[in-house]
């Protein structure tokens, strides 16, 4: 499997050539929480107390020292599930978590931090945490679509792709977003869900801008101006260098809907 992940990493760097070199180690596990605790015994008790969901596709684990590699954990049962059903979604998970690793690596150095911990925990970095979720969802989903395209799993005809997105893919994700958003009263969780949705939508806006854009989004979220404002802002702040001086502006957009 090592050679496979090396190939995927090379594909990631080919697709996103602005990515800096950093140490990343990929670990396959059937228990995300247990492996996380083994990598970070200093927070084992905290992990046990929080009991984060163990059935996710994967997870990024930051080291104690900035000099050590960032770990990406991939759930073996999900790899099997997504390989068996042909979706290969775990490849998107790989790119999603890799993007988080890159973002944390760059942000820690921009901030002059000696550890990654504040980026995960401190409220002062909430805007970074939200932005990297958008960034990771966008790059991970785009990476997966490219894999599907190379494997002949996506129709070559543009009209067929747009029809599938508008008739099947977008209604599914929009409906799931609505259900999860309104079932959760935690504002931060709602913001994360929103960033994930907009990350996916932004890929379609890149590929098919005549069909997926601010106007089309406003029709789907009629009367929800903050959603369109947020999408517009994110589309002009796609890299860490673009967003870094603008986290305050991002917070202003979020304040249109959340009291943060």
How does the SSE layout of this entry go?
Blueprint: H1 2-15, E1 24-29, H2 32-39, H3 44-50, E2 58-61, E3 70-75, H4 76-84, H5 89-110, H6 117-121, H7 126-150, H8 158-183, H9 187-207, H10 214-220, H11 225-235, H12 240-243, H13 247-254
Parallel strand pairs: 1-3
Antiparallel strand pairs: 2-3
Helix pairs in contact: 2-3, 5-7, 7-9, 8-9, 10-11
Q: How would you briefly describe this protein structure?
A:
This protein is mainly α. It has helices at 2-15, 32-39, 44-50, 76-84, 89-110, 117-121, 126-150, 158-183, 187-207, 214-220, 225-235, 240-243, 247-254, and strands spanning 24-29, 58-61, 70-75.
C-alpha termini separation: 44 Å
Number of helices: 13
Show unreliable segments.
none
* Rg of Cα set: 18 Å
State the domain count.
2
- Helical residues, percent: 55-70%
Q: Strand-and-helix sequence, N→C?
A: HEHHEEHHHHHHHHHH
Mean pLDDT, all residues: 94
What does this molecule look like?
By secondary structure, the chain is mostly helical. It folds into 2 domains: 2-121, no CATH class; 129-254, no CATH class. The protein is built from 13 helices and 3 strands, in the order αβααββαααααααααα. It has helices at residues 2-15, 32-39, 44-50, 76-84, 89-110, 117-121, 126-150, 158-183, 187-207, 214-220, 225-235, 240-243, 247-254, and strands at 24-29, 58-61, 70-75. A 3-stranded mixed beta sheet has the order 1-3-2, sandwiched between helices. The protein is globular and about 50 Å long.
């Amino acid at each position: 499997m090592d050679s496979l992940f090396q190939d995927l990493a090379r594909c990631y760097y080919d697709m996103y050539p602005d990515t800096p070199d950093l140490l990343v180690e990929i670990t396959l596990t059937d228990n995300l929480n247990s492996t996380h605790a083994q990598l970070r015994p200093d927070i084992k008790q905290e992990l046990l107390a929080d009991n984060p969901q163990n059935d996710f596709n994967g997870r990024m684990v930051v080291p104690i020292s900035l000099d050590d590699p960032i770990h990406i954990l991939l759930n073996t049962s999900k790899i099997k599930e997504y390989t068996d059903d042909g979706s290969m979604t775990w490849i998107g998970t790989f790119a999603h978590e890799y993007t988080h690793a890159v973002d944390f690596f760059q942000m820690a150095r921009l901030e002059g931090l000696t550890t990654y911990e504040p980026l995960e925990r401190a409220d002062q970095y909430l805007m970074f945490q939200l932005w990297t979720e958008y960034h990771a969802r966008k790059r991970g989903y785009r990476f997966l679509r490219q894999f599907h395209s190379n494997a002949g799993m996506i129709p070559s005809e543009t009209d067929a792709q747009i029809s599938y997105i508008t008739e099947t893919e977008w209604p599914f994700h929009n409906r799931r977003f609505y259900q999860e958003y309104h079932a959760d009263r935690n504002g931060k969780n709602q913001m994360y869900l929103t960033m994930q949705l907009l990350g996916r939508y932004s890929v379609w806006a890149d590929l098919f801008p005549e069909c997926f854009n601010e106007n089309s989004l406003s029709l789907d979220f009629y009367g929800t101006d903050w959603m369109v404002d947020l999408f517009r802002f994110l589309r002009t702040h796609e890299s860490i260098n673009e967003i870094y001086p603008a986290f305050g502006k991002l917070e202003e957009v979020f304040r249109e809907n959340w009291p943060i």
